[in-house]
Amino acid sequence: MSEKFSKIEHYVIASDTGARDGIGVEIYVGNNMVMEIFRDDTKKKREVSLFQDQLDLELVEQAINLFKEEIPEDFQD
Questions:
Q1: pTM, 2 dp
Q2: Contact 18/7 with Cβ under 8 angstroms?
Q3: Which long-range CB contacts under 8 A does 19-23 form with residues at least 24 apart?
Q4: CA dihedral in degrees (10, 47, 72, 20; nearest 10)?
Q5: What is the pLDDT of residue 5?
Q6: pLDDT tens per residue across all 77 residues of the chain
Q7: pLDDT computed for residue 77 by the predictor
Q8: pLDDT the model gives residue 69
Q9: Longest Cα pair distance anywhere in the chain, in angstroms?
Q10: pLDDT for the residue numbered 60
Q11: Best CA proximity match to 28, nearest among 14, 46, 18
């Protein structure tokens, strides 16, 4: 992982076409997913889900920047 994303131990880019339709970035600390940022193409929204309390602000900021770099901004039909 680059210095730019030094707080992110591991991430996965994942698409979902089941209950929701879109693509996102899952952020992991150790083996635990602590956050997901998801572009929901059905709702035309970008959403953040936190799975751990009191996340480091720098980790959250880096995750948002990673999402912006990895996930295209335009919604899909």
A1: 0.89
A2: no
A3: 21/76, 22/76, 23/71
A4: 100
A5: 84
A6: 567 888 899 999 999 888 889 999 999 999 999 999 999 999 999 999 999 999 999 999 999 999 999 999 999 98
A7: 83
A8: 95
A9: 35
A10: 96
A11: 14
Contact by Cβ (8 Å): 26, 36: yes
Residues 6+ apart with CB under 8 A from 32: 51, 52
How is residue 14 written in tokens?
């994942």
> Using CA atoms, how far apart are residues 40 and 10, in angstroms rounded to an integer?
22
Residues 39, 58: Cα–Cα separation, whole Å: 21
| Torsion angle of C-alpha atoms 7, 12, 16, 19, degrees rounded to 10 | -50
Number of residues assigned to the chain: 77
Residue pair 58/7 in contact (Cβ under 8 Å)? The answer is: yes
Dihedral, CA of residue 46, residue 52, residue 54 and residue 56, to nearest 10 = -70
Residues 23, 38: contact at Cβ < 8 Å? Answer: yes
